[in-house]
Amino acid sequence: MAASDQDLLEEKIQTVRRRDRRFSRHAYYFVLDALDYTMTHFGRDQLTGEDRHVGGKELLVGIKEYAAEQFGPMAAIVFERWGVACSADFGEIVFNLIDAELLSRRPCDSRLDFVEGIDFRELFAEKHRESLERIASPQR
Prior knowledge:
6 helices
């Protein structure tokens, strides 16, 4: 991304944050990065290889996987520091990015796609327990 593109992105995110101060600017950048991650890992049509639209439920899976890679067991704490308490908050971030014309949507997309999603605190705690068990178990 060229410097001017990065400046434009930062300006748009700051504009969003002036309207909605609930979430850190890092949360917005994370969602954009998680969308790229999701598109790379899940967002291609298996038959044609073409990019396709990623819905809210798919994006939540991508967010979960990307956060686990980036932050490990600290992911839930990072999200809390950014003001993200539940999966519905990611829906708010996504729709703020849509309002800023940084993302597009289809008529079927809804904030409700992000509700009843993932309990990040429990998910990352479980991932951490699994990692500790793997480390602690004797090698065969």
